[in-house]
Each structure stands twice: as structure tokens, then as C-alpha cells.
Design the sequence.
């Protein structure tokens, strides 16, 4: 088979540090009173196989430099993909030019120096995958063959993709802080089509890790993808009704994602969150605690510093149901008259306290209701908390799955969904930045026939 | 040949000292490898954005991205690599990586290059330079002041201005050589209103392949400002939307996102080549109500979704997708057209040089029918009038699609009675479109705000439709209907 073309001249952390320092130096030379620089470079490849053959091989190699310059309290920014000194010089010039036309913003500027992550701990996210393109193709073909053989109703495939990428992310500012985090990300995903009479259904499974040894076996990805696809066949609609709902772990992540968005500084100072002025108030039941753990080894959400260069810390956002902290960066914190929580750019490995049941246990507890395995659309209004989305999943009776359900809507208010949350399962999906089990909710409105 | 090529050559090739002969050599090098087809795609994008928030010009950014993508195709296989340096060694590296898709020997050669003349749907202008920085800032400030003056309940205003100047040059082994220079501007107005402790959000915006000055000339920015405030205020009074299946009237313009989701994606060539779309194999069959004629048209002057040539160098066209309910055409790029034995329809698009082209929509809309908007509303005894939408999503395999109403009203006995809260509407593409029972005579295109995402790639698109009545669609409200 084919050989991977040489990708020479890739960056080292030292080279990124020098690049950041050079851009900062250029900003200073052009008269900026302060500046900050973000650099991300990556290289990798992705192969896609489909129906027993190679569909595509893509090589990736990108670099992006973003620079913000400050003249007192006025700010301008620029970004570029070119690291030649003359290109950097003109990008900094463009940023400085913009700063001449922006207004003084009393809240703008770098973080206070004592908050910066000087001497940050080394991150544990860099495990290159020693895999060639032909090997990746082989792996993909093997996975697809296993999946296609699993059930004769699986008649087609959208393919198996195998990808690996190395990323170096650097941040530095004119207070002397420069940090670089090397990260690897490896992924295998399998998308299948099942057919029965005139009906077609598609579903997928994937595994992702910074460490190749942390990836699930291809047999397991193939099995899960095949099972998930086939079990959707014969979906029915429901009559319009109210019913308790379990949101499957993979989708429960999104449900908590709305919470994360609602406590973010930007939503708050723009008065665009239903959780505005809710600090100290009870928003979840007493048994719920939500926290972040930014330094977990081998977890892709980990980071020793945030997008402001501020040291991250294990924040508790909700304790015993009470909202204890917002998620703030330097700018939004100043706007709100508060302190940054090291969350510029988001949260780092968010956890919600699980109960004692797994998914089967949650279904028993619900007895009768809807298990949602997929949401569609983004009908979530964070200003009001109004929630309305398309859904598919399974109808549960006597604690057991009865039949697949599709083409229905599910609606409520996030305030009520959080406030009346019954239990979080211990079937925690560890693949994302938000780690949660399935979530059992009280009654919601289902729109159907 | 038009002057696009000269602009593209000056911007993309001259700085690196690249000549057409050299590029042809690189392309031949990719081909000499049992590759059916190969292409080089040079692109530069200069963009800027300016943001006003809380009454001050908070920030602005200027961005440059340049690079070249090399694609090699062998049967169904695609090899792809790119470089963000437009320089000969980087181009040769990328070419070598792309050709690795096939290792067998071959003796194809690049066809004699000939210029493809595309349309001239917009001027090859750099919109970033169409206003001075002072004028841009002043525009934002005027829109802000105007928006705040609309209503005392407005408590938050965010106005942003963005422009992009993109130059592309494509050279393909089938002899196509094409260039395009694409301006794109956009203004957004977003507001929060408050009344008795209840807050609501409103948004409006628009733009197209024009420069800032053209947008200023017709005071369009102020129309958006008014519209954003109006939407937010309507929602302040909204009651719970009903849940269940009922007749739904969809307003003209942006609600055409229905067509984009319900049929558009399902008619893209790649899904149909792979047989993963529920429209696969249905060519010539009745797939919607006979009242529906739906086209994808990349040739509308100055529209956000329009292109003089697509990203493979094929001139765009107006493709009839569905004619009086009958499925007539898929949207094709070169690869899928070749594999399905048809021609490209000028729908080969890519987010950038760092992404592979695939069949994508341009401006997708339904042609007008006979009914008036008023007749359509009056025909509904009990249902919903969905005047405006957020976005949508589709599963092209099962046909299920959703879209979220951002402004909706109850219709009772043929009259619009009161606003209801935003809700998600869900249906099955083919099924819903067989239930279109009235089509308005009021075709309207959206204001130039669409972004379509597919396989992680975003491209600007347009949608449109006249007022439509769908006899049964499921509404995701919270009130028992």
C-alpha cells in the first residue's frame, strides 16, 4: 500500500515559545502597551474507508497565530497562518491600526500578573500514535468488516474514519508568561446504515483518546455502532403526552452544556442567561454537585491554564444543589465586578455527582417513560430557559425498552428540568469535556400524533 | 477570460514566483500515477470584524489565511493534502502526499488548459476597503443609537460588522482553469429587551456579495435594527406554544430553511452515490406535492450563496431539483457526477483550501405559487403561523428534520391571534412536502445570513420560499393543543 509522505519541519514546544515571544516583541516594538498571543499548530492525517475500500486520505497541517494588542484600554486583534517575520509584522500593524479606532474599555486588558500560571504543571496529554496511513486503513477496514458482518440488516456504510493529530497550543502575554501544551488526539468512528423494507436508519459509534492505548477495541466500536443502528429500525411516533424522560449519557452531556453556557460570563454580562442573579440560589436538587477537574491525567478537557493564561483550579459550580460559582474569564469577571475563575474559553472536565443506578437501574426507577438517545436541532433559548427539541429513542415500560421512537418533540424549561432532576446514572461517558451518566428527568411535554 | 484571473494571479501566484507552466508540471506529476483527475486550489482570504457592545466599539480583528490544496482522485478514492504556504517546495510536498492515494503507474497527461469563463454576478471588489475605519465605527455607533431609541425596554445591544475578500484560482487536470474574486459582507444586530423582570432576545442581520457602501446606500442596517427589536418585543408577549401535530403556515424568506433541510441535503450527489439518502434511486418519481418546484440557483446577482464559478472551477447554474413534485436532478460536484455518469451542476464547494470539495447547496428556494399570504392564513382553523426561524438539522438517511421557530403565532379560525414562544418543528422530509397544500405568490429570499455545515465544513448559503401551508407538522410546544 501507500506510504505516508514526510511531514518535516514540524514545530517543537520550544519553537512555539520563541514564536510567541517574537510576536510579543514585535507588538512592543510597534508601541503596544501590552499584548497577548495565541498560537496553535497541528499536523496529522485522517483516512476514511467505505464498503471495503479506501474513500479518502487527508493530510492536515495547520498553523494559526492570533495576536491582541492593547494601547492602554483600547484593543485590536489580528490572526494569520503565516509565520514569516514580515507577515507577523504586518499582522501586528493591522491589530495596532484597529486599536486606534476602538473605544477605551475599562474592563479590557491582561489578567493580573499573580493569577497567571507561572510554573504550571506539565500536562499529560501527549501520546503520539505510531501508526502509518496503510496501518490506519487496515484498522478501518477491519472495523467496518466486523460491523457489516454483525447483522444482515446493515446493508450500507457511511464509512469508518481513523484519524490522528498532534497539536501544540501556546499562549503568552507581555507580563512574561508563556505556556505551551502539547496534545495528541486519536479517533476512530464508524457510521452505518441499516435497511428494512423501505426504511433506512443511520447511527454511529466512536472512540477518542489522547493515548492510542486508551482507544476502545475496534470490535467494541463495531458492535456498538451495529447495535445502535439496527435497534432504530421500526421506529414509531408517540401520541402527544407528558412523560418522565431519561436522557442517555452521550446526549446528557449536551443537557449540562446548556448549564455551562448559562453560567458563562459572556451570557451573564449580556443579560442573556436564565441563571443571571442566581448565585447562592438552589437550582438543582440537594443531591447534585457539579465541579470541574482541570488537571486530570490523559483527559482531553485538561489544561493547566485558561485562554487568559490564568491558572486553572478545581472549581465547584454547584454544591448540594446551590449555584456557588459562575464560569468567568478575566474580561467577563471585571464586567461583573467579580474575580476570574480561570474559565476563559470554557470549563475543564466537568463532572456531575452520579447516583447509584446504571442505565438499566434508571429505567427500572422510571418504570414507564421515554429514553432519549438523540436530540435534533438547537431549540434552546438560554435567555428564558425555554427548551424544545426534536428527539428519538425508545419507549420504556416496566423498566424495559419496548420499541424505538422517532419524529417527536420534547419540551420544557431548563429551570424545571434541572430543578426536578431525579437522578444521574453511574454509566458515565468519559469521552468528552463534560462527563456525565444518563439523566432521569421528571415529566416533560412530548409532541407527537 | 475576465479580469478575475489577473487579480488571482497577482495575489496568489506572483508573490511566490509561480508560473502556470510550473503548476502544470506539478499537476502532471500528480497524474502520472493512475489518477483519474487532480486539481490545485489556491486561495487567499482577507477578513475583518468589528464589534460594538454596551455602547462602545469593543474590538476588531483582521485575519489573513492563504494556502493551496492538492487533490488527486482515483475511482472513488480521494487523496488530499494542503499547505498554508504558497511556495513551490510546500506545493510539491502536498502534491506528493495527495498522489499517495494510488501507487500504480500510469501515463495520463494534463489536458490542454483552457479558461473557464464564469458569471459576473458581483464585482471583484475588496469590501474591507470600501469604507474607512472611521466610517465603519461611525456606522456601528449610529446603528446602536438607533436601536436603543426604538424602545425603552431595550437593555442590551450588540452590533457587528464583518467583511471578507476571497480570491481563488483552480487548475484541474481536465483542462479547467478558473478564478473568482468573492466579496462578502454582513451586519448583525442582536438585542435583549426586558419588561417586568422577563427578558427576551431578538436578532436580525443580513448581507451579500457586495461592499459596505452598497449596504449603507439603502439603509439596510437600520431595517435590521428595527427588526431585531420588533422580534424581541413580540416574544415578550408570547405564551406557551401548543404541542402536537397541526397545520402550520410557514412565512416567506428565511423559513425556506425548511427546504434546505427537508429536501436540499438529501439531494446532494455524494449521499445518493453512496445510497445513504432516502431520495436515492427516486429520480423521476413524485416526491413532493405537485405544488412544489424547488431549485438550487448559484447565479443570483450579489447573493450570499452565489458563486461565479464553484470551487472546482465549474460555472454555477440554476438546477431544478424538484419540478411540480417530480425529482429531476441531484446537486453534483465533479467526483460524484463522474461516478454517477452525469455532469457537475456547479455545486462543488469547500470551506477553504484546507478542505476537500463536496456537493453543497448555493441558494435553494421554492418558486412562487398562486395563493396570497392572506388566503393561506385564512385557510387554517387551528394551527401555527411560523414567521421566522433559527436554524435546522436533518438526518438524510431517515429523512427526519427539525427547525426551530424564533417567531410564531397561533392561528385560530383563520386569524392570527397571539404570539407563541419559539418551538422546534419536526417532520419527515418527503412526508411533509407531500402535505404542502398551498403555495404563496410571494417568493422572498432570505436577507443573507445562512451558514450551512456539513462534515465539519461551513459555507455561506441562501434560502427562500413563498408562504407555504403544510397540513400536518409536529410542533414541540409545552401546552396541550
Sequence:
Amino acid at each position: 500500500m501507500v506510504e505516508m509522505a514526510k511531514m518535516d519541519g514540524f514545530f517543537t514546544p520550544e519553537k512555539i515559545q520563541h514564536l510567541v515571544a517574537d510576536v510579543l516583541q514585535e507588538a512592543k516594538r510597534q508601541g503596544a502597551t501590552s499584548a497577548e498571543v495565541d498560537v496553535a499548530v497541528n499536523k496529522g492525517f485522517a483516512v476514511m474507508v467505505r464498503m471495503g475500500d479506501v474513500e479518502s486520505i487527508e493530510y492536515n497541517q495547520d498553523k494559526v497565530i492570533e495576536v491582541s494588542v492593547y494601547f492602554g484600554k483600547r484593543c485590536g486583534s489580528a490572526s494569520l497562518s503565516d509565520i514569516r517575520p514580515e507577515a507577523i509584522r504586518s499582522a501586528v500593524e493591522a491589530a495596532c491600526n484597529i486599536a486606534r479606532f476602538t473605544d477605551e474599555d475599562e474592563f479590557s486588558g491582561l489578567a493580573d500578573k499573580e493569577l497567571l500560571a507561572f510554573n504550571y504543571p506539565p500536562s499529560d496529554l501527549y501520546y503520539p500514535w505510531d501508526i502509518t496511513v496503510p496501518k490506519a486503513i487496515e484498522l478501518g477496514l477491519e472495523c467496518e468488516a466486523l460491523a457489516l458482518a454483525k447483522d444482515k440488516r446493515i446493508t450500507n456504510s457511511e464509512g469508518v474514519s481513523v484519524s490522528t493529530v498532534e497539536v501544540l497550543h501556546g499562549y503568552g502575554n507581555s507580563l512574561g508568561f508563556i505556556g505551551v501544551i502539547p496534545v495528541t488526539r486519536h479517533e476512530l468512528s464508524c457510521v452505518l446504515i441499516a435497511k428494512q423494507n423501505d426504511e433506512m436508519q443511520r447511527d454511529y459509534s466512536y472512540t477518542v483518546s489522547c493515548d492510542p492505548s486508551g482507544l476502545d477495541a475496534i470490535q467494541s466500536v463495531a458492535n456498538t455502532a451495529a447495535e445502535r443502528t439496527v435497534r432504530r429500525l421500526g421506529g414509531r411516533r408517540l401520541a402527544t403526552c407528558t412523560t418522565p424522560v431519561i436522557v442517555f449519557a452521550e446526549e446528557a452531556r449536551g443537557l449540562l452544556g446548556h448549564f455551562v453556557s448559562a453560567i458563562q460570563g459572556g451570557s451573564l454580562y449580556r443579560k442573556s442567561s436564565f441563571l443571571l442573579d442566581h448565585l447562592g440560589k438552589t437550582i438543582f436538587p440537594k443531591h447534585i454537585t457539579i465541579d470541574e477537574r482541570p488537571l486530570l491525567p490523559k483527559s482531553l478537557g485538561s489544561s493547566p491554564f485558561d485562554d487568559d493564561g490564568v491558572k486553572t483550579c478545581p472549581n465547584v459550580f454547584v454544591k448540594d444543589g446551590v449555584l456557588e460559582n459562575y464560569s468567568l474569564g478575566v474580561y467577563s469577571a471585571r464586567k461583573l465586578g467579580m474575580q476570574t475563575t480561570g474559565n476563559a474559553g470554557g470549563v475543564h472536565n466537568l463532572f456531575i455527582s452520579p447516583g447509584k443506578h446504571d442505565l438499566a437501574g434508571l429505567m427500572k426507577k422510571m418504570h414507564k417513560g421515554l429514553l432519549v438517545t438523540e436530540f435534533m436541532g438547537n431549540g434552546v433559548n438560554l435567555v428564558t430557559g425555554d427548551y424544545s427539541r426534536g428527539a428519538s429513542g425508545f419507549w420504556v415500560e416496566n423498566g424495559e425498552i419496548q420499541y424505538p421512537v422517532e419524529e417527536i418533540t420534547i419540551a420544557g424549561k431548563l429551570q424545571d428540568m434541572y430543578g426536578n432532576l431525579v437522578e444521574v446514572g453511574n454509566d458515565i461517558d468519559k469521552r468528552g469535556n463534560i462527563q456525565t451518566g444518563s439523566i432521569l428527568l421528571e415529566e416533560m411535554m412530548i409532541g407527537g400524533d | 477570460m475576465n479580469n478575475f484571473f489577473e487579480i488571482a494571479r497577482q495575489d496568489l501566484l506572483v508573490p511566490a514566483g509561480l508560473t502556470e507552466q510550473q503548476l502544470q508540471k506539478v499537476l502532471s506529476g500528480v497524474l502520472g500515477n493512475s489518477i483519474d483527475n487532480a486539481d490545485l486550489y489556491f486561495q487567499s482570504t482577507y477578513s475583518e470584524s468589528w464589534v460594538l457592545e454596551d455602547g462602545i466599539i469593543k474590538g476588531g480583528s483582521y485575519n489573513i489565511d492563504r494556502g493551496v490544496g492538492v487533490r488527486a482522485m482515483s475511482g472513488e478514492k480521494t487523496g488530499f493534502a494542503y499547505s498554508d504556504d504558497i511556495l513551490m517546495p510546500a506545493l510539491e510536498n502536498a502534491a506528493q502526499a495527495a498522489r499517495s492515494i494510488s501507487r500504480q503507474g500510469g501515463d495520463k497527461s494534463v489536458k490542454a488548459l483552457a479558461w473557464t469563463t464564469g458569471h459576473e454576478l458581483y464585482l471583484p471588489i475588496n469590501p474591507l476597503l470600501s469604507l474607512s475605519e472611521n466610517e465603519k465605527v461611525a456606522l456601528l455607533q449610529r446603528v446602536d443609537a438607533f436601536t436603543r431609541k426604538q424602545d425603552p425596554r431595550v437593555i442590551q445591544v450588540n452590533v457587528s460588522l464583518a467583511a471578507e475578500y476571497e480570491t481563488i484560482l483552480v487548475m484541474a487536470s481536465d483542462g479547467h482553469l478558473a478564478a473568482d474574486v468573492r466579496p462578502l459582507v454582513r451586519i448583525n444586530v442582536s438585542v435583549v429587551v426586558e419588561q417586568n423582570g422577563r427578558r427576551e432576545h431578538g436578532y436580525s442581520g443580513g448581507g451579500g456579495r457586495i461592499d459596505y457602501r452598497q449596504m449603507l446606500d439603502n439603509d439596510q442596517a437600520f431595517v435590521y435594527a428595527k427588526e431585531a427589536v420588533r422580534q424581541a418585543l413580540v416574544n415578550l408577549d408570547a405564551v406557551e406554544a401548543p404541542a402536537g401535530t397541526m397545520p402550520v403556515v410557514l412565512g416567506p424568506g428565511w423559513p425556506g430553511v425548511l427546504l434546505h433541510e427537508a429536501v436540499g441535503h438529501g439531494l446532494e450527489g455524494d449521499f445518493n452515490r453512496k445510497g445513504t439518502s432516502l431520495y436515492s434511486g427516486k429520480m423521476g418519481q413524485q416526491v413532493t406535492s405537485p405544488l412544489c418546484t424547488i431549485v438550487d440557483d448559484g447565479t443570483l446577482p450579489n447573493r450570499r450563496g452565489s458563486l461565479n464559478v464553484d470551487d472546482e472551477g465549474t460555472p454555477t447554474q440554476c438546477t431544478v431539483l424538484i419540478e411540480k413534485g417530480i425529482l429531476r436532478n441531484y446537486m453534483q460536484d465533479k467526483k460524484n457526477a463522474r461516478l454517477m455518469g452525469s455532469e457537475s451542476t456547479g455545486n462543488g464547494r469547500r470551506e477553504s483550501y484546507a478542505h476537500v470539495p463536496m456537493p453543497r447547496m448555493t441558494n435553494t428556494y421554492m418558486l412562487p405559487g398562486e395563493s396570497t399570504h392572506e388566503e393561506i392564513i385564512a385557510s387554517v382553523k387551528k394551527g401555527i403561523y411560523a414567521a421566522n426561524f433559527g436554524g435546522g438539522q436533518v438526518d438524510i438517511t431517515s429523512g427526519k428534520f427539525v427547525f426551530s421557530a424564533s417567531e410564531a403565532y397561533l392561528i385560530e379560525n383563520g386569524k392570527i391571534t397571539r404570539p407563541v414562544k419559539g418551538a422546534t418543528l419536526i417532520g419527515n422530509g418527503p412526508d411533509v412536502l407531500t402535505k404542502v397544500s398551498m403555495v404563496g405568490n410571494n417568493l422572498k429570499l432570505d436577507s443573507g445570513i445562512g451558514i450551512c455545515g456539513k462534515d465539519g465544513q461551513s459555507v455561506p448559503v441562501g434560502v427562500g420560499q413563498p408562504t407555504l401551508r403544510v397540513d400536518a407538522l409536529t410542533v414541540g410546544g409545552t401546552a396541550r393543543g
